[in-house]
Specification:
Helix content is about 45%, strand content about 10%. It has about 375 residues and is α/β, with parallel strands linked by helices. The chain has one domain (about 35-355): TIM Barrel, CATH 3.20.20. It starts with a helix and ends with a helix. About 55% of the residues are buried. InterPro entries: Metal_Hydrolase, Pept_M19.
Length: about 375
């Protein structure tokens, strides 16, 4: 499967990475004090795919906003996205207020409706994307690609039909935690059927916050890469969303990706703490298994130096000074998320040939 997925990478993308990894005598490496300039230059070719942005829920609380001119009430607006070299956003459809509202399906549908309205309101800055190729198209036209998700598993309403409806509305990631079929005890039989249906549709399984039993069972049965949308290294910080080294290694073996959050609670109070987590995930899971999650507009406190989405060049400059190669940085910012999206779409095409839409229901499977 992995070999077939690799064939999906276009010759142009492969050529870009090969060129970055082959220094020439005519272009000696710039001095270390030029790291920020190098970071900005790299982001023009390999922009950040930010894996966890809470803007839709935040905008619901504002009486008025203007993302085109700039909006001080949020961490994310179009001028700062451009300054930060951001090319794609995964918009989390997190549930407002209580962790388990009475009507989670309705709450997520309302956020989807708002998110689509916001994208339509700023066509010169944002573009809705439902696939890896549409994300690349948005980037080619100078727009920031917006992908819907992750959504909480409760948004599926214990119904595979509802899961399919969410996919039709654009949801591409589902967080597998907080339900009767994906909890501390792991996946139930119905939960396993949910994962198989996600594979058939092309919905990424987000394991952030999932129990260890759930995460490992997903990794056993999934035919697609997995994602951790905002998880650091548990070895460096004991936050419950962070992941132990053995699970990080399994995510790397799965060809999945761990998106390290710019969150003081998950990593630490300084930009260097985020860089430490990125170093650790790269070392344990590999350079092809690490990415970035801003956690902006989620209520998170951000490390000093990473106050909003415009600060990504400074984080990359820190990594350059730590010895990250341009190839590794290109994977970190754009390549790994793009590859995981492509792999999930490939797995969906293969699964669609093997099985029809599932008609399973929770009651008989979990009785």
């Amino acid at each position: 499967m992995a070999e077939l997925q690799e064939e999906l990478i276009t010759a142009a993308e492969t050529g870009e990475l090969d060129e970055l990894s082959s220094p020439t005598e005519e272009a000696p490496e710039p001095p270390a004090d030029d790291a920020l300039t190098r970071a900005r230059a790299l982001l023009t070719h390999h922009p950040v795919a930010d894996g966890y942005c809470g803007l839709p829920a935040t905008l619901r609380t504002l009486p008025w906003y203007d993302l085109e001119l700039g909006e001080t009430s949020v961490d994310t607006d179009i001028p700062r996205l451009r300054d930060g070299g951001v090319g794609a956003l995964l918009w989390t459809l997190r549930l407002p207020g209580a962790a388990a509202p009475e009507h989670p399906v309705t709450a997520v549908l309302e956020q989807l409706d708002l998110a689509r309205h916001v994208v339509a309101e700023y066509p010169e800055g944002l573009r809705l994307a439902r696939s890896a190729s549409e994300a690349c198209d948005a980037r080619a036209y100078g727009r920031v690609a917006v992908l819907m998700g992750p959504a909480p598993a409760s948004a599926a309403g214990d119904s595979l039909a509802t899961l399919r409806a969410l996919y039709a509305l654009g949801v591409r990631l589902l967080t597998l935690s907080g339900t009767s079929w994906a909890g501390e005890a792991g996946l139930t039989r119905f939960g396993e059927e949910v994962v198989r249906e996600m594979n058939r549709l092309g919905v990424l399984a987000d394991l952030t916050g999932a129990s260890a039993r759930t995460a490992r069972r997903v990794l056993e049965i999934t035919k697609a890469p997995v994602i951790l949308t905002h998880s650091g290294a548990h070895a460096l910080n004991g936050h419950p969303d962070n992941v132990p080294d053995d699970l990080l290694a399994e995510v790397g073996a799965n060809t999945g990706v761990c998106l390290v959050p710019c969150s003081a609670e998950h990593t630490g109070p300084a930009l260097g703490d985020v860089a430490d987590h990125l170093d650790h995930v790269r070392r344990v899971a590999g350079a092809r298994a690490v990415g970035l999650a801003g956690t902006y507009d989620t209520g998170a406190v951000h490390p000093e130096g990473l106050a909003d989405v415009s600060r990504y060049p400074y984080l990359l400059a820190e990594l350059i000074e730590r010895g990250w190669t341009e190839t590794e940085l290109a994977l970190l910012t754009w390549g790994n998320v793009q590859r995981v999206l492509q792999g999930t779409e490939f797995a969906a095409r293969a699964a669609a040939l093997r099985r029809p839409p599932s008609t399973a229901r929770i009651e008989p499977l979990d009785a």
